[in-house]
Design goal:
Blueprint (H helix, E strand, L loop, with lengths): L2 H19 L21 E3 L4 E6 L5 E6 L2 E6 L5 E6 L5 E10 L3 E17 L1 H4 L8 H6 L6 E5 L17 E2 L10 H14 L3 E7 L11 H6 L6 H10 L5 H26 L22 H7 L9 E5 L9 H18 L6 E4 L18 H9 L6 E4 L16 H14 L11 E8 L2 E7 L5 E5 L7 E2 L8 E4 L6 E2 L1 E5 L2 E5 L8 E4 L10 E3 L8 E2 L4
Parallel strand pairs: 1-7, 7-10, 7-11, 8-10, 11-12, 12-13
Antiparallel strand pairs: 2-5, 3-4, 3-6, 6-7, 8-9, 14-15, 15-21, 16-17, 16-23, 18-19, 18-22, 20-21, 22-24
């Protein structure tokens, strides 16, 4: 091979490698740069250190100035830099964040308050414009201290460092395109706390939970039957792992052969053969880790208070596997952010489809709802129950106001010190007493009641009402509808058809019409089952 041929081959191979590995590290530039999460109108998290980061020429001196703080650093050999601003109190004063290097960047109208990530599938992505009362809500949306940024849809094999988007100020002109659940969550927090609220909306309709999970999250549930296969698949496409090094080593060898074959083909006037296939996670937005890498990784380590999550429809009918995946999701995000066990609150799936009216239930979303409930064993987690506001014929219930309100109930109770019950009753334990079973609950608050929820109106108590949707079974596992009565802070369940009961189910079906156990705060009890049959 001539010297010119070797040089040409090296240039071709080097160029292809650059294309294959592109996106791992942004190209260094003389100008200091910031990721898109830092734009005009942003909200910084109060009362904790605030990372600010970006890229510049290696060795370039950087100064970040904000709110009487001047923090200096130097860009590393890879062109990356980061500073941490000291914790600040909330402020609705419009201020400027300045980054000085070889050039100067100015971010205007910056507030300090509470920042929450909003993620999941379509019921989180669903906007104010296509949810309930859109015109009424649009006209009333004069909340300039609420800000919103929408991360573009982008699956990726390679962890992305940036995205193209900008923060907007909440107004009648902008709110229509906000996540409805996130907006109503933010509005309640803002009105109660009187501080700015920032929403980072990274959601995509129709997506499963797997693409949102980090490889670290999958590793954390390695005992789950499906996790090792997914971890191996992810690591094979990652050049920082041993499996990935082997896979990329094979790719490089194939590319060398391809270069020779391509040169021969072109010299003979023929088209070269197809490029060798690069190791990858898949080709769609449903493949493991691809949405985390494209739509969440670029946000890290932006300081946040916590996350709200509305997803599960695309994993409907899963039980134990969804429980494990929820653990992987939460643990993976927390590990990636490095902020400890930040609050993570999710929405249990709404009632949907035709009511089968079978006491055993176990159809449709019933198992996934129970997995969501059981995942509350994660520390600092919470769940908004919405089986009373769904729509049998619409997977996207219009009432997003109550969803946001109930998520905010958790945050206000757990994170902001409000003396309120965070949730409706959640099953805690049970005891068998002869021919009945007594159910104990968390979050009873001021007591249990039979309630009725109509549309957007507050829940009302039904005097002398009878509890519905409780089923009971004995050793033969034959489920029958049960008599259920409130007794103090417990519910006693029985049936003349079951002499020796062993288990109880409540609202354990896709659309448990008539489920009516509430606490006196007007919040519904979660569906539950005491069995694992």
């Amino acid at each position: 091979m001539t010297t010119a041929s070797r040089i040409g081959r090296g240039l071709v191979l080097g160029g292809l490698l650059a294309l294959l590995l592109g996106g791992l590290v942004p190209a260094a530039s003389a100008d200091v740069r910031l990721p898109s999460i830092f734009t005009d109108n942003l909200v910084l998290q109060r009362e904790q250190a605030v990372p600010v980061w970006g890229w510049a020429e290696p060795g370039e001196a950087i100064t970040v100035t904000f709110a009487d703080q001047n923090v200096k650093t130097t860009a590393g050999d890879d062109g990356r830099w980061r500073v941490d601003l000291e914790a600040m109190p909330a402020s609705d004063q419009s201020r400027v964040l300045t980054v000085n290097g070889n050039n100067t960047l100015t971010i205007s109208n910056v507030l300090v308050g509470e920042v929450w990530v909003c993620s999941g599938q379509s019921n989180m992505e669903w906007t104010v414009r296509i949810s309930g009362k859109p015109e009424e809500e649009r006209r009333a949306a004069n909340y300039p201290l609420i800000r919103h940024i929408k991360v573009p849809r982008r699956p990726a094999d390679v962890p992305q460092e940036n995205f193209g988007a900008a923060w907007t100020v909440c107004s009648p002109d902008t709110v229509s395109n906000y996540t409805a659940v996130g907006y109503y969550f933010a509005r309640r927090l803002h009105l109660d706390l009187n501080v700015p609220i920032g929403l980072i909306n990274t959601s995509w309709g129709g997506t499963r939970i797997e693409p949102w999970i980090t490889v670290g999250g999958f590793r954390s549930i390695g005992h789950a039957a499906f996790a090792p296969d997914i971890v191996r698949r992810i690591e094979t496409a990652d050049p920082s792992t041993q499996l990935g090094k082997q896979a990329y080593g094979r790719l490089i060898a194939e590319m060398r052969r391809w270069t020779e074959d391509a040169q021969t083909a072109v010299a003979a006037g023929r088209y070269p053969p197809p490029y060798p296939a690069r190791p990858n996670l898949g080709s769609s937005n449903q493949d493991p880790a691809r949405l985390y890498r494209g739509m969440v990784h670029p946000l890290v380590p932006y300081a946040i208070r916590g996350a709200i999550w509305y997803q599960g429809e695309s994993n409907g009918t899963e039980d134990a596997t969804y429980y494990e995946k929820k653990h992987a999701l939460v643990q993976g995000w927390r590990e990636a952010w490095g902020q400890g066990d930040f609050p993570f609150y999710w929405v249990q799936l709404a009632n949907f489809t035709k009511d089968t009216k079978e006491p055993a239930g176990d159809d449709g979303y019933a198992r996934t709802r129970d997995a969501q409930r059981r995942a509350l064993d994660l520390p600092n987690s919470g769940m908004a129950v919405i089986i009373d506001i769904g729509e049998a014929d619409d997977i996207h219930p219009k009432n997003k106001q109550d969803v946001g309100h109930r998520l905010a109930q958790w945050a206000l109770a757990r994170d902001y010190g409000r003396a309120i019950v965070p949730s409706g009753p959640l099953y805690r334990s049970h005891e068998i007493d002869g021919d009945s079973i007594r159910i104990h609950f968390d979050h009873v608050g001021e007591g249990l009641m039979v309630g009725k929820k109509s549309g957007y109106e507050p829940t009302v108590e039904v005097p002398q009402g009878q509890l519905a949707r409780f089923a009971i079974a004995g050793a033969e596992r034959r489920w029958v509808w049960a008599d259920a009565k409130i007794d103090g802070d417990t519910v006693v369940v029985s049936s003349p058809q079951v002499d020796r009961p062993l288990a109880v189910r409540y609202a354990h079906s896709a659309n448990p019409e008539g489920a009516n156990l509430y606490n006196r705060a007007g919040l519904p009890a979660s569906p539950f089952r005491t069995d694992r049959w």
